[in-house]
Design goal:
The chain has 135 residues and is of the alpha+beta class. It is built from 1 helix and 5 strands. The chain is 44% helix and 24% strand.
């Protein structure tokens, strides 16, 4: 009978320790994936603003630039990252831009407005950005 109690005690302690280890391991995995998702969201947000500046620069170089649903290449990021310019509309005194940037598993959208000089060139003043929206 003493042997049976010893074996059962060892089995119960082993089961408890295994459950505790699996719980801690699952928690560590969840924490790490949350950190990776946050990093993707930050990269996506920064990339979206960079895309907006790149699109505005392209417009300044060529005022007939029409990005309609075009991918905008940037000199940074992974090859799987991408910047999709949805629209660029030019008014009499302002230019509006709408785009999204995908980085890893996150996507951020940005709307930007820039002021135009009377001759149609971009004003060196500040650009007005809408809120970047991670999913």
């Amino acid at each position: 009978m003493n042997g049976f109690i010893g074996i059962m005690s060892a089995i119960l302690i082993s089961a408890f320790m295994t459950a505790a280890m699996l719980s801690a391991s699952a928690n560590a995995f969840a924490t790490r994936f949350n950190q990776l998702r946050h990093i993707d969201e930050v990269r996506s947000s920064v990339g979206a603003y960079s895309c907006a500046f790149a699109a505005l620069e392209k417009f300044e170089e060529d005022s007939s630039y029409d990005p309609h649903e075009s991918m905008l290449g940037l000199p940074f990021g992974n090859p799987s990252d991408g910047c999709l310019v949805h629209s660029l509309s030019v008014g009499t005194s302002s230019l509006s831009l709408s785009l999204e940037y995908r980085s890893g598993m996150a996507t951020s959208s940005v709307a930007a407005t820039a002021h135009l000089n009377p001759d149609g060139t971009l004003s060196p003043g500040p650009f007005i950005f809408g809120t970047s929206t991670p999913p």
